[in-house]
């Protein structure tokens, strides 16, 4: 069965089930399967946002998800937006994420008439017993806003990067490679934010940098993309050290250009000390 057909069946079963539940009032499809720009491919999952009387009832057990197909597993999860959801995996490797919120929350948002942030790129009504669901659908889909650069945010990220750089160097030297991988994620988040700011500086604020590095091969310059190939290391000290050096070089190139353009203060004393410390403690072979 194709993924499109499978997810169509899920939607149809959800609608039928939702109509029969007195406490399920509104549901939407969001994410790639509601998006016009960069829509779903065969590996895309299905995201359903649902509003019910008491979310706790649907979060205490996942048995209700079995109404939609042969369920392999469902994992409770708190997403980045602070919402609670089930990450459900059905037979065949198909994933459906059920985000669950209260009818009260829907009513507050509906009264505001302001779409949810993750609806901005695309959303469609799956179930509506209130007659107000369309109010949360944007009149025109657009890119979600990204974090704009300002002196405070730049100062925080640049100091955080150099703090993490020396921390990672120490952990590599200690051969604490698992810790290196965990904390390197934080370092790469700072790097990604700086890549976004850098590309907007190069190409204008209207450049769509998406979210969490999505479609980065489309919006990042070729030279930066090539250098990104070197910033992720293998699970050994020597390659982790090499990757850290390449991460530092790329970050410094971009962050210094940003500081110069916007006339932000660069923490020269901190950078000098961190780079000197790393150099003095040698290169791992």
Automatic annotation (TrEMBL):
Pfam family, one: Adenyl_transf
Protein name as annotated: Aminoglycoside 6-adenylyltransferase
SUPFAM superfamilies, alphabetized: Nucleotidyltransferase (SSF81301), PAP/OAS1 substrate-binding domain (SSF81631)
